[in-house]
Amino acid sequence: MASLRPATQADLAAITAIYNEAIRNTTATFDTEEKSLDDRRAWLAGHGPRHPVIVAEQAGAVAGWGCLSPWSDRCAYADTCEDSVYVDASSRGRGVGAALLAELLRLARQNGMHTVIARIADGNPASEKLHCSAGFERVGVMREVGRKFGRLIGVQIWQRML
Ligand SMILES: CC(C)(COP(=O)(O)OP(=O)(O)OC[C@H]1O[C@@H](n2cnc3c(N)ncnc32)[C@H](O)[C@@H]1OP(=O)(O)O)[C@@H](O)C(=O)NCCC(=O)NCCS
Q1: Does 135 sit in the ligand 1 pocket, CB within 6 Å?
Q2: How far apart are CA 95 and CA 19, in angstroms?
Q3: How far apart are CA 57 and CA 137, in angstroms?
Q4: Is the pTM of this model over 0.90?
Q5: Does the beta carbon of 25 lie inside 6 Å of ligand 1?
Q6: CA–CA dist 76, 136 (Å, integer)
Q7: pLDDT digits (tens, 9 = 90+) for 66-111
Q8: 158 Cα–ligand 1 center, Å
Q9: Closest ligand 1 atom to the C-alpha of 118?
Q10: Residue 2: which pLDDT band, with cuts at 50, 70 and 90?
Q11: Cβ(95) to ligand 1 under 6 A?
């Protein structure tokens, strides 16, 4: 089983590699340009105490990462956050994503969040199942808001009340 802990600078190479694989090969993220280590360093530093970045470690290697991010910088949204979960392609389908999301929900509650939002691009059954099993409900869809790999893609909004 994976062990979960806060991410550190030492995890950034693995976090970046996992994210860049998803950028290259999936519509899970609407980023289209791979991220540099420097970019991810700034990204990690920008995550304050209420919006942690965590990793799942298995056999001494980072098998996946997850984070909470602010939903908006407008103050009235302060207790609403968004989750992200990315698992290394070789470790998917073995419970790592579920463990990361459960820990993010625990931290969100601990940090006084009221609700967590997930944006899931159409055509990602693994993420839909992951979020459904964690108690998220699909509350809407934004049609054809992204264009990647030459096609238009909708984004579902899922929400978990805490
Ligand atoms: C989505 C993702 C994070 C799920 O993590 P994972 O470790 O593979 O998922 P788990 O093994 O914990 O499985 C979680 C649930 O999803 C189901 N699932 C996993 N892969 C699936 C697939 N390819 N198709 C359908 N269901 C799937 C599991 O059966 C499990 O269901 P359960 O709750 O009924 O037991 C992972 O596939 C991933 O990193 N994908 C690319 C990035 C991504 O899509 N991130 C989410 C962006 S919104």
Answers
A1: no
A2: 18
A3: 28
A4: yes
A5: no
A6: 22
A7: 999 999 999 999 999 999 999 999 999 999 999 999 999 999 999 9
A8: 15
A9: 48
A10: confident
A11: yes
